[in-house]
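Q: I have 480 residues here and want to know how they pack in 3D. Can you give me a structure?
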Amino acid sequence: MIYNSAVQHAKNLNAGAYTSLELTKAYFDRIHQFNPAINALVHLNEPESLDLAKQLDDKRPTLEQPGPLYGVPVTVKECFKMAGTPTTINFPPLKNYVAHEDSIIVERLKQAGAIILGKTNVPTLLSDAQTFGPLYPTCNNPYDLQRVPGGSTGGGAAAVAAGMTSFEIGSDIGGSIRNPSHFCGLFGLKPTHNGHAQDGHVPPFPGNKMGFSAMNCTGPLARSMEDIELAYNICYSPRWDYLRYLPVARDYPRELPLSGYTFASFDTLVGLQAGKDVRTAMDKMTEALEAQGATVKRIQLDLQLTERILQNWARLFGFVIGQENSWPKRKIINFLFNRDLKGSRIPAAKALKEGLSLDFRHFTYALHEQQETIAEFNKYYDQYDFILSPTCVGPAFKHNHKHQDIDLDGEPIAYTDYCFLFVMLFNQLQNPVLNIPTGLNNEGLPIGLSLSGPHFSEQQLIHVGKLIEAEGFAFQAPEL
């Protein structure tokens, strides 16, 4: 029962196979059994969830058509406001902050009938590929407790993989949905750029009316593509009041078999090739796609364009994170991120400093550069329906709070390059990306791959994700 999809739970609940109260109790039993070792959830709504489950059970017989998540337990990342719950982003100045209202995501989950079990662990300021910080215990990967679950939706990914929830809603400005999905063997969707300052996500800090949002996206992590589709359709229907999540009609093939699609693939950026586990996974998926009649062509991204994209990611990130901080705090941020950039192949130090300056000239240049690089990169989608690439260069690594180099096939790789190189690209470009699990390596660690599509092609990505899942690229539960 625990590892059923949310879609299957909804069917079973409507058929009377079990009650919402029984299901919710089963998830809390699972949480109490495994969370002490994994530290995936940092706030539980246990009494409220059990009470709500009973209420929903009592009302079910009177409803003609319950909501699509009626009585189904889910979780949300700690950074989403939910009335009466802490929203600290693992940051000491916010340690006493309790949200007074629900984010749009939480509101929509509730409207669909979901029971929100609690909130999941995050790194400080959501700014790491690991999940640790001063307020919450370090989150561990359920496949190997000595390793990271990724970040910043690390707690959510660990919870979904360990069967402590049906699915999770996370967020992503530099791989924070895709890396945890990769490290924990899940499907994870980063939509076309959809984050905005009024969506109830923190940052921006509570009470600060900061209006600039760039590259941040919110989206689902799940064990199945049917749950990715369900969560996406519930959370991201049009929001006409704020002119957000608006529908875009694309002349783009959706319901084709795999044989109807053309894929590009690459495994190297700025001279760094993904590790052998990832390359093996890419070969495996390429063979599966070609066996179904799809066309897959290896490409090499233009080096100059790639460097411009990576630099502008840093420039825009500087503006996003800098707008709420004083100049002394921005200097500290610059120091910390530049420390990680030492030895990195990503030529971003100067661009980050420009962004943190909050200078209007640099700001307008960053917006212009983003549009120019998007237009140039979109030429690839004139030739290919989707692009297959690594999510991360290797599997989950051992806890590494000091951001030391990480071993990749016997070679030390800069922390930033190992974790962020392949994911930053599509945040700056704003394309939707789906992480797809490919199985476990020889050490029993998950390996995922990224499939990106043109802007607003989420429905096509979901369709193709389902086809690839049917070919055996599916979630494999950890041995807990």
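Q: Anything worth noting?
A: Residues 165 and 273 are 35 Å apart (CA to CA). The first strand starts at residue 41 and ends at 44.
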